[in-house]
Structure formats: structure tokens, C-alpha cells
């Protein structure tokens, strides 16, 4: 469409150029009047004819005619005769010969108007056409077209012949058949979920990473910004306008939206009521991939039993049932299993759901959350335990040792050293629990007792193990702590975890082939996190607003500066700086509203942005989040979608359902 | 009180704290005890109601129990480098855990002595000893510190690494911690281990998870009233109501 409009505009420019005319020459003077003939002679005898009278002399030359003048006047947008701008041509005779076409001399007026709905004047348009931004965007459009054609298999159509008409010529049945032929062409599927990574978080992280690379920042692209396809995801839960991770991840993994707070079950569930689970369980993409014979993996920087990773493998009436000690007695008695138990026994549980099914279980599991797998007994503590008794389980079971007994070929690791020792070519199965609770924030990772791998390192190791299966793999990678840093009101932490997440995406992209691997990057929900004010280009994204053309921080009506980033609610301002001594700021109450930050360095890790509404924890937001995709089936990601569409895109790309059906039938 | 107390903080390593106990010949343990303090605060001529603080120790753990607010806070020293904080809401039998070294949730605590003794080794090192009286377990060291910011007087019990009487005056405010009783497991049949174990059995929530749960009434109340971030020295009751006269926000 853009190309089409530009064509019209270009034609208009050409037309306007032809109208810049010179004034016409004056017409020739009128010929002089012929001389009067001589009088006839009187009658007489016929005699000889008298002589003809002599020719009259030529009349005097006529005076020169008046010059004809044409004057052109540019017309601005909004002109009565040319609403979209243009040129008025006035013409007439310069009767008084003063070389100027006076109003009383105009005998004819014509207009050449700019066509269509263009809002730009001629000069501005020419500027645009030669502008680098304009040209690069034009090239991007062309590139997008090529990508789309490659994705849909129409790349053989030459570029020059592709316009609205020719594309329509191969539409309908042919294109639909073509698109359908792409079903199942993804051997591998990787779903990246940035927990709480709303649009504003992506934008701010992009700017921060750009600025850390010496750029202004706004022009920078995170790894997934470069993906060719993107769309929006509507995140609401069935019973909640602003969602939580449990309901949203269930939607992405099963294709079915459900209630807030529940895992892997549909909206007919009653949260916290074990008896309502049965019959409402949903099948997930990970389960389908497992049944289809692919390798499967889960990576998270949160506890691996936390809502987002749990929704890949568990069915639970409550997201908080991470281990048996978290469950009400009647739920245990009724036979509901805690989430950690479901992870370790995933293979047998899934096999029990389908007669004759034989799968090999999840190959890669890495994250935090050891407390839910270990008994409430100090003797079961990990060497790097951060509590006197690390485990929470009250049933005496040690699910780590159970897993090791179940998978004698598996490798269990709990720290950086063990992780570094994993041989991805010989390791068939990996279980990594790197923290008692959530793994560290990226900004704090260096403080961990025994060291933890980064999300990029975990992603790399996971892929290198999973891709040993010729049938392909499904991998889910969650950056769980973006969400937590936002809840704490700390943009620094959220953005640094987002950057680490983008690095993991880049690593996955590097290790896989676009021709057989679908990568989707998205978020489960956003946060009430804003980028505001009118900071100038390149202004530090974590800094105070400095207006365009200014050097000093702008001030609000209260006379004090303000930051670009902020939160609508939460704990509000804190200035913890880089200090690491004994001031336990968490002992202080919420401190919302305006603060005088004139002398505060707001770019430090410990700075917490101001908030409007005082709450003990900043909240999720209800707006859409982005979906970014590349690889087979990625072209289906566009427009504004229900969040559950993500499952269907993955299913289209890998044909999970059909492949799984062929196994269980 | 919290901000006022911060004046006392000095950056001293946890290792240095270990050297603070003098050899008095006292055979009673300094690592397992319950010390009860009466805390009074005066601003000008206005005195706030006295509050009670019970300091519990059990090995590498220390607790500050505030009976008026039904809140107990504990700190555990891990590997001499990490400090894990937990806040217990005793009336609800619920706990909020703070992971060690999470800067995003607050400055990382490195000075265990401040929690363990109510005064940091750093401040102790700066104080001027006036006199020492008594012997053995009853040894008392009287110390003072005067600088532009504050005036501190301290009666220190080196055998137990406890303050007996501690007065701080600054900016028109005076606060005093006065030891009213001291109990030991051997002497008074005190079970400090049980005190901590009882609380460790509470339903616990990681601080990072509070914002994710919309339905837990206890957490929802915390989020809405914000008192999860208060507690501490007891400026808020466990139900989120501010204690009058203690602190203004």
C-alpha cells in the first residue's frame, strides 16, 4: 500500500514539474490597411481603356500587440481550490506593458492540484524521498515483502512484478494451499517468555542496551526486535481483566484461555478445589511434542515450579501448590499432586493418560526452586543452601534423588561449576536446580553463593542437548525475574533481566536454523511501567528527563526533576544506590508520590522509580504484549490476537496435534 | 526509628564482628539466649509509649520479636558472608522471606553484628571506654561516643555481646534500649531452637512472589496496605495499622 501511494505522489511531482512555463511571446502586429484605389474615368467614346490607377501606398505598420503573461503561484495545503496544495496559473495580456500581470489584466486562471490525500507539500515530499530514514524504511518494506514471500513460498515471483495486482493473481486457492503446505515444517519450536515484559519494558531495555553500546539507544534493536514477524497478544484471563502468569501461560501452552491462578486446566476449574481438576485438564504443546517423539526442555530463572514453567507440564487447581506443604490437607487427601511432584513424575503421569503411550520424559529442566523438591530436613540441604533447612516438603520425599533413581543416565547439577561440567553431546538428560527459590536477578548474579549460569548459558546448553534428537525438540525458556524486579519497582533490574533474556534469544537464533526452527518471543503480561516526558534523543533511559535542546534536567510544576521511567503504583521511590551495607531498606514503608531527586543518581542499580498509588507491590497491567517470531509458521504472527493463538501458531508450525494423534491412535 | 538507627551503622565485616566478644571467663553462652529490652523514645517533652523488644539468638540466627505488633524478624548468617532475612507475622503464622543479596529488594545486608547486638561492631570500635565494672558474666563496660550527629552512651555486656543500656540522642530525639531480663537455655530452661523452629514452620512466601498472587487474602492485604514493607521495629501492627507516635510517613 505504501508503495502504491508513493507511486501516485511521484507522478504528481512529475506533473507539477511540467507546469513551470515561460510567458508566451506577444502576437505579431496587425498588417497595415491597403491604400485606396484610384477613381474610375468618365464615360467617353469608346476609346482605349484608361490606365489603371496606381496602387495605393502601404498602410503604416500596426503597433506591437500587448505581451501575454502567465504567473504561477504555489498553493499551500488547505487552499480552497487545491486542498492538498498545488499551483495556480494566472494568464492575461500585459495591456499596460509594465511587465507585470495585474489583477485587472488576468483573463484566465487554471489550477494544477496535488492529487490524492497526500498531506505534504512538493518541497517536503522531495525531501522525504531523499531522506535516509525514508529510504531505509522503504527498503524495510521491500525486505518485509521478500520475507513474506519466502515464508509463503512465493519468492519465485520477481520483485518488480509484485504489486497489488499480481499478488492478487496468486491469491485465494493457490496461496491457501501454499500456506497449508507449510504446516509441520518446523522441526523445532522454542517459546521464549519474558515474564512481565510489556511493550514499554522492551522499548526501555532496547534503549538501555543501545546506550550501553555507545549509541543514542532509540535506534538500537534487541535480538528479537529483528525478527521478521510480530503481532500483539491480548492477555486477559477468562475471569480477570489484568491477568496473572498462570492463566496466561496456560493459554499459550494449551491454546485455551482460563482463569487466573490455575495451571493447565480450563475455566471450569474452581481455584483451590482439587476435585474440580479431573476432567478439566488441558493438553500442552510440551506434552504433544513429547508424545510426538521430540525432545523437550524447560528453562526458567524463576522457580521451575513457578506458574509460567509449571503451565508447560502440570495441572493444578492452584498455582501455589508448588510442593505438598503448600497444599491444603483435603487436596492431598483427594489425590491432587503438588507441582514439583508432577514435574519429576511427568513421564509416568502422561503415559497414564493414554493407553499404550510410551514416552521418555522431559530431557532438560533448569531453574530455581530446590525447596519444593527437598524434604524439610537439614540433612538434605544442598552444599550451597541459603537456609538452615532448605527443603519445604513435609512428606519426607526427596524428589531430586527420586529423579536420579528414575533416570540413571541423567545429570543433576546445582551450581555453576556443575553446570559448566555438563557435556552436551553425551548428556541425555539434565536436571539443574540452581537456587533454593528463584534464581538470582541478572544484576545480582555475581552475588550467588555457588554461582549460577545465565539464561543465555542455560539456553545454549539446553539446545545443545535437545538437538541431539533427530526428531527435533520443543523448548520453553522463561525470564522470570523481569516480573519480580517490576513488582519491586526497580526498572534497573527489570531492564537488565530483559537484556539477558534478549541475549538468550540471540543465542538460540544462532544455534538453530530458520528453515526448521520456529522461535517465538513474547510476554505473559505487562506491568504498569511507563516511559514518559519529552526527553531528548539519547537521554539516559534510567536518568532524569532532559528536554530537547536542553542540558539541564526538566522540572515539573513542583520545581523538581523527574525520571523518564516510572510506575503507576507500587512501593515508589527508594535510593539504594550501589551501597551494600546493612541498611535494610525493605523495612521501610511504601514511599509514593513526588520526591526531590535533584541530587540523586537515578541510574544506579538500587534506584527505585517513583510511583503514584502506594501499594506493597507494583502490579501487572492489562494492555497487550508483543509477539515476535521467525522461522516456519512465523508468518502467522501478525495483527492483534488472543494470547491462546500462540499455541496454534506453534501447532501449525510443528503439527504437534497430528503427530501426537498418530502416536496415540 | 529505622532511619535514626541507621546512624549507628558502620561498614564492618562480619568477620570482624566475631572478635567482639571479650574473654570474661563467663561460661554462659552468648549464642543461645533471650534478652528482653524496653525501648522508649522521647521527642522534646513528648514520650511515646514504651515498647518491648525481645532479642533471640540461636547459633547463626538472631530474631527481633515485637510482641506489641506480633511481628518477628530474623536474620541468619550464612557462610559468614550472606544474611537471609525473614519477617514472621506471628498472629497469622505467615512468613515473608527475603533472599540473600537481592539488591533490588533492598540494600544487601553485610553487617550481621548490627542485627545480632543491636549495635554494630563498627560503632563499638569508635566508642570511648569510660570504665569497666564487675567480672565474669557480670562484666560491664561503660562507653560513650560524641560527635556532631549524635551522643551515645552504652553499657556493654562483653560476655554476651549484649547491650545492657543504650541511649542515643540526636536531632532532638532520644531513644533508649534497656535490658530488663536475660535468659539462657541452661539456666532458665529456655528453648531457643524451638522458638525459631516454630516460625520456620509457618507458611512462607518469597517476597518476590507477593505481587503475583491476587487471591491470597493475607498477601492481598499486604499489597494493598503496604505493611509488608514496614514491620521492622514495629511501626505497623501485623494487620497493617500504623502505631501512633512511632513514625510518620
From TrEMBL, chain A:
State where Zn(2+) binds.
195, 483, 487, 524-525, 620
| Cofactor(s) annotated in UniProt | Zn(2+); Mg(2+)
Feature: compositional bias, Low complexity: 375-388
InterPro entries from the entry?
Answer: Alkaline_phosphatase (IPR001952), Alkaline_phosphatase_core_sf (IPR017850), Collagen (IPR008160), DUF7151 (IPR055575), EF_Hand_1_Ca_BS (IPR018247)
Quick one: which residues bind Mg(2+)? 195, 306, 308, 478
Per the database record, which ranges form the DUF7151 domain? Answer: 67-113
Keyword list, A-Z: Magnesium, Metal-binding, Phosphoprotein, Zinc
Q: Active site located where?
A: 245 (phosphoserine intermediate)
**Which GO terms label this protein's molecular function in UniProt?**
alkaline phosphatase activity; metal ion binding
* Record-linked Pfam families: Alk_phosphatase, Collagen, DUF7151
What does the UniProt cofactor note say? Binds 2 Zn(2+) ions. Binds 1 Mg(2+) ion.
SMART domains the record matches: alkPPc
Give the region (Disordered) as residue ranges: 31-68, 374-396
Q: Which protein family is named in the record?
A: Belongs to the alkaline phosphatase family.
- Protein name as catalogued: Alkaline phosphatase
Native source species: Alteromonas australica
Name the lineage. Bacteria, Pseudomonadati, Pseudomonadota, Gammaproteobacteria, Alteromonadales
Amino acid at each position: 500500500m505504501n508503495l502504491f501511494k508513493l507511486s501516485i505522489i511521484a507522478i504528481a511531482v512529475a506533473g507539477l514539474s511540467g507546469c513551470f512555463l515561460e510567458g508566451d511571446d506577444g502576437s505579431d502586429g496587425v498588417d497595415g490597411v491597403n491604400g485606396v484605389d484610384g477613381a474610375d474615368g468618365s464615360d467617353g467614346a469608346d476609346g482605349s481603356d484608361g490606365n489603371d490607377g496606381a496602387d495605393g501606398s502601404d498602410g503604416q505598420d500596426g503597433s506591437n500587440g500587448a505581451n501575454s503573461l502567465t504567473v504561477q503561484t504555489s498553493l499551500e495545503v488547505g487552499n480552497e481550490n487545491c486542498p492538498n496544495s498545488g499551483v495556480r496559473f494566472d494568464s492575461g495580456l500585459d495591456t499596460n506593458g509594465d511587465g507585470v500581470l495585474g489583477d485587472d489584466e488576468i483573463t484566465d486562471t487554471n489550477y494544477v492540484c496535488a492529487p490524492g490525500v497526500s498531506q505534504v507539500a512538493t518541497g517536503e515530499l522531495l525531501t522525504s524521498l531523499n531522506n535516509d530514514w525514508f529510504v531505509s524504511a522503504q527498503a524495510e518494506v521491500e525486505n518485509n515483502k521478500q520475507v513474506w514471500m519466502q515464508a509463503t513460498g512465493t519468492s519465485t515471483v520477481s520483485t518488480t512484478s509484485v504489486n497489488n495486482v499480481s499478488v492478487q493473481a496468486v491469491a485465494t486457492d493457490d496461496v491457501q494451499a501454499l500456506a497449508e503446505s507449510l504446516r509441520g515444517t518446523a522441526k523445532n519450536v522454542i517459546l521464549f517468555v519474558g515474564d512481565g515484559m510489556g511493550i514499554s519494558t522492551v522499548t526501555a531495555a532496547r534503549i538501555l542496551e543501545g546506550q550501553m553500546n555507545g549509541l543514542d539507544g532509540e535506534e538500537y534493536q534487541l535480538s528479537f526486535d529483528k525478527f521478521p514477524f510480530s503481532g500483539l497478544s491480548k492477555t486477559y484471563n477468562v475471569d480477570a481483566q489484568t491477568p496473572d502468569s498462570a492463566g496466561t501461560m496456560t493459554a499459550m501452552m494449551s491454546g485455551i484461555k482460563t482463569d487466573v491462578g490455575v495451571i493447565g486446566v480450563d475455566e471450569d476449574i474452581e481455584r483451590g478445589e482439587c476435585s474440580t481438576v479431573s476432567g478439566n485438564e488441558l493438553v500442552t504443546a510440551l506434552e504433544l511434542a513429547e508424545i510426538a517423539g521430540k525432545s523437550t526442555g524447560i528453562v526458567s530463572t524463576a522457580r521451575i515450579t513457578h506458574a509460567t514453567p509449571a503451565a508447560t507440564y502440570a495441572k493444578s487447581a492452584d498455582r501455589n501448590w508448588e510442593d505438598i506443604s503448600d497444599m491444603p490437607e483435603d487436596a492431598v487427601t483427594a489425590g491432587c499432586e503438588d507441582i514439583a511432584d508432577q514435574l519429576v513424575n511427568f513421564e509416568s503421569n502422561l503415559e497414564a493418560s493414554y493407553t499404550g503411550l510410551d514416552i521418555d520424559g522431559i530431557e532438560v529442566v533448569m531453574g530455581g526452586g530446590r525447596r519444593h523438591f527437598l524434604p524439610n530436613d537439614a540433612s538434605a540441604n544442598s552444599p550451597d543452601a541459603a537456609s538452615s533447612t532448605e527443603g519445604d516438603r513435609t512428606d519426607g520425599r526427596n524428589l531430586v534423588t527420586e529423579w536420579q533413581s528414575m533416570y540413571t543416565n541423567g545429570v543433576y547439577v546445582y551450581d555453576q561449576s556443575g553446570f559448566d561440567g555438563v557435556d552436551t553431546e553425551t548428556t541425555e538428560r539434565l536436571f539443574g536446580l540452581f537456587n533454593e527459590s528463584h534464581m538470582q536477578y541478572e544484576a545480582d548474579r555475581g552475588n550467588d553463593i555457588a554461582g549460577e549460569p545465565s539464561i543465555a548459558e542455560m539456553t545454549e546448553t539446553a539446545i545443545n542437548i535437545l538437538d541431539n534428537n533427530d526428531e527435533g525438540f520443543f523448548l520453553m525458556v522463561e525470564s522470570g525475574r523481569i516480573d519480580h524486579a517490576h513488582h519491586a519497582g526497580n526498572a534497573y533490574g527489570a531492564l537488565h533481566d530483559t537484556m539477558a533474556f534478549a541475549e538468550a534469544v540471540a543465542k538460540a537464533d544462532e544455534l538453530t536454523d530458520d528453515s526448521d526452527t520456529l522461535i517465538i518471543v513474547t510476554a505473559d503480561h505487562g506491568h504498569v511501567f511507563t516511559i514518559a516526558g519529552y526527553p531528548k534523543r539519547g537521554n539516559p533511559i534510567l536518568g532524569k528527563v532532559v528536554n530537547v535542546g536542553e542540558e539541564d534536567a526538566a522540572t515539573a510544576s513542583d520545581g523538581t526533576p523527574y525520571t523518564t521511567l516510572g510506575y503507576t503504583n507500587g512501593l515508589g521511590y527508594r535510593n539504594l544506590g550501589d551501597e551494600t551495607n546493612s541498611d535494610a531498606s525493605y523495612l521501610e514503608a511504601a514511599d509514593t508520590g513526588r520526591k526531590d531527586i535533584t541530587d540523586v543518581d537515578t541510574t544506579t542499580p538500587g534506584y527505585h522509580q517513583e510511583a503514584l498509588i502506594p501499594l506493597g507491590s507494583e502490579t501487572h497491567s492489562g494492555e497487550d504484549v508483543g509477539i515476535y517470531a521467525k522461522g516456519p509458521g512465523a508468518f502467522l504472527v501478525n495483527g492483534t490476537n488472543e494470547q491462546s493463538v500462540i499455541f496454534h501458531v506453534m501447532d501449525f508450525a510443528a503439527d504437534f496435534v497430528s503427530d501426537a494423534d498418530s502416536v496415540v491412535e | 526509628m529505622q532511619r535514626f538507627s541507621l546512624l549507628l551503622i558502620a561498614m564492618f565485616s562480619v568477620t570482624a564482628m566475631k572478635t567482639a566478644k571479650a574473654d570474661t571467663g563467663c561460661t554462659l553462652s552468648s549464642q543461645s539466649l533471650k534478652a528482653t529490652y524496653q525501648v522508649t523514645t522521647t521527642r522534646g517533652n513528648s514520650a511515646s509509649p514504651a515498647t518491648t523488644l525481645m532479642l533471640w539468638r540461636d547459633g547463626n540466627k538472631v530474631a527481633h520479636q515485637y510482641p506489641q505488633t506480633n511481628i518477628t524478624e530474623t536474620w541468619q548468617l550464612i557462610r559468614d558472608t550472606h544474611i537471609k532475612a525473614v519477617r514472621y507475622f506471628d498472629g497469622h503464622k505467615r512468613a515473608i522471606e527475603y533472599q540473600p543479596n537481592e539488591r533490588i529488594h533492598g540494600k544487601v545486608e553485610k553487617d550481621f553484628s548490627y542485627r545480632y547486638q543491636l549495635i554494630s561492631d563498627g560503632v563499638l570500635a569508635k566508642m570511648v571506654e569510660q570504665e569497666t565494672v564487675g567480672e565474669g558474666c557480670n562484666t560491664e563496660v561503660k562507653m560513650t561516643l560524641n560527635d556532631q550527629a549524635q551522643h551515645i552512651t552504652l553499657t556493654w555486656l562483653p560476655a554476651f555481646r549484649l547491650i545492657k543500656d543504650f541511649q542515643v540522642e540526636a536531632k532532638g530525639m532520644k531513644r533508649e534500649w534497656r535490658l530488663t531480663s536475660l535468659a539462657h537455655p541452661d539456666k532458665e530452661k529456655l528453648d531457643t531452637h524451638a522458638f525459631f523452629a516454630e516460625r520456620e514452620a509457618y507458611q512462607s512466601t518469597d517476597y518476590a512472589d507477593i505481587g503475583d498472587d491476587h487471591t491470597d487474602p493475607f498477601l492481598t492485604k499486604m499489597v494493598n496496605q503496604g505493611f509488608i514493607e514496614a514491620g521492622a521495629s514495629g511501626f505497623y501492627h501485623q494487620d497493617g495499622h500504623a502505631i501512633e507516635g512511632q513514625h510518620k510517613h
